[in-house]
Each structure stands twice: as structure tokens, then as C-alpha cells.
Structure to design on (261 residues):
């Protein structure tokens, strides 16, 4: 009898350990790209995943970082490089371009009007929808620092946080799906 | 309209593109009780595969699908 009890306890411990290892119903996504098409795809997947019952966490890094700048906010006190990056990189969703067929902005403008005509949600609307659905967003602290962005110039987003690679890996480790876009 | 099914709520998703039909249905179904049926009307051809995929994943059930030209009607039972 005692033997069975120890075996049972052993099994329970193993089950607990396995449960900790098994991935959660979660999607972790790295949003690396600052292209309109890829950013849009990221948010379509993110909102779709919430609809499918998943937890979703997005990590914005490198060229993806300026997508989350707020066009209406400007901050001072940047050094020369920071000012340069600030001017050359898109200031939020309005400034992001297609990765292909941009044609000096004409292609992007055409795509936007086509999207409107076909009733496809804009990037701004998608971000709003993601926020409403509880998609968590993290921004890479190193990208912010590298490009000289300040927290005060980023969009208002419920629960927006800043992090490093370990936070992404922690989330990705127990996610069923991990994407790099 | 299907008259043999009792519909608790109808969602007009006409004109909406991916991912909105699925997003709206997943939000909307929470407005009714488990066991109730909702009607979702979509014009997005992609929703023909998307809504059943969503239902299978979330444990709900598409009990009937009707297609009339471009208009697709889904009757979805809330199971979860």
C-alpha cells in the first residue's frame, strides 16, 4: 500500500513538471518589420488569434519600433543621431510604407485607397482592435535606445511595456506559436 | 432565413474583411447563453473556411451554412 502511495506521489510530481513544460494556448510574435504590409499582417494574425481563443503577445523591435510612434507627439532633448533617426524613420502608422511597389509613396497611397474601398481595416484601426481585445504589446528597450526614441513619443496603448530579449523568450518558451515578422 | 432554428441574436458582418468576421463572431457569441444560436451574415468568401475553423478551435458549432450569391449565413451554436 505504501509502495503505491509513493508511486502515486511520484507520478503526480512528474505530471506537474510536464504541465509546466507544455505550451500555453498563446501566440508570441516578433514584429521586426517597419513595412505597412508586414505590420498589417502582424495585427491581422494577432487579432485573429485572440478570436481563436489565444493569448497574444507582440514584441516590437528594430524597424518595427517606429510603427508605434505617435504622430502627434514630439519630444525634445535628442542628440544628433536621435534626431536623424527620428526624422528618417516613420513617425507612426501614417508614415509606414509598403515593402514592395511603394513607388515613391504612390503605391502605398494606392494600396490605402484600395483597402478603404474593400473595407479592409487600417493599421490604426487594427491597433485599436488589438488593444480592445487585450493583445499585449512590448517594445524592445534596446531599439528605443539605439534609435533615440523616447517613451513619451510612443502611442497610448493599454498595458504597453518595454522589455529585453529575456521577456520575449520567457513568453515564447510556453507559447504554442511563435512568429517572426 | 432558416425558420427551423431559433436565433438569439443576428450579427450583420456584410462588407467586413478578414479578420473582422471571426473577431466579431468570437466577441458576439459571448452575448448569448451557452446552447443558444447566433446568426452571422458575411460577404467575405474567406469566412466560409474561417468561421468553421474558428468554431472547431473554440469548441463552438456551425450548425448550418447558407449561401445566397455573395451573402453567407452562418448559424452558430454556442457550446463554449
Amino acid at each position: 500500500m505504501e509502495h503505491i502511495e509513493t508511486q502515486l506521489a511520484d507520478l503526480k510530481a512528474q505530471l506537474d513538471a510536464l504541465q509546466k513544460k507544455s505550451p500555453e494556448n498563446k501566440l508570441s510574435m516578433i514584429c521586426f518589420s517597419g513595412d505597412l504590409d508586414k505590420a498589417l499582417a502582424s495585427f491581422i494574425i494577432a487579432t485573429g488569434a485572440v478570436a481563436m481563443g489565444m493569448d497574444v503577445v507582440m514584441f516590437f523591435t528594430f524597424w518595427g519600433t517606429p510603427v508605434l510612434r505617435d504622430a502627434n507627439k514630439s519630444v525634445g532633448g535628442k542628440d544628433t543621431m536621435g534626431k536623424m533617426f527620428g526624422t528618417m524613420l516613420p513617425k507612426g502608422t501614417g508614415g509606414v510604407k509598403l515593402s514592395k511597389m511603394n513607388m515613391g509613396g504612390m503605391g502605398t497611397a494606392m494600396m490605402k485607397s484600395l483597402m478603404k474601398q474593400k473595407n479592409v481595416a487600417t493599421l490604426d484601426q487594427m491597433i485599436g482592435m488589438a488593444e480592445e481585445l487585450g493583445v499585449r504589446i512590448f517594445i524592445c528597450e534596446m531599439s528605443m535606445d539605439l534609435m533615440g526614441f523616447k517613451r513619451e513619443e510612443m502611442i497610448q496603448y493599454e498595458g504597453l511595456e518595454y522589455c529585453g530579449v529575456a521577456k520575449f523568450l520567457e513568453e515564447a518558451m510556453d507559447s504554442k506559436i511563435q512568429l517572426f515578422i | 432565413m432558416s425558420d427551423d432554428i431559433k436565433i438569439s441574436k443576428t450579427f450583420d458582418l456584410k462588407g467586413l474583411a478578414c479578420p473582422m468576421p471571426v473577431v466579431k463572431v468570437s466577441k458576439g457569441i459571448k452575448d448569448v447563453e451557452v446552447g443558444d444560436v447566433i446568426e452571422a451574415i458575411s460577404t467575405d468568401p474567406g469566412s466560409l473556411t474561417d468561421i468553421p475553423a474558428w468554431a472547431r478551435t473554440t469548441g463552438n458549432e456551425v450548425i448550418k451554412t447558407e449561401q445566397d450569391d455573395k451573402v453567407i449565413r452562418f448559424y452558430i451554436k454556442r457550446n463554449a
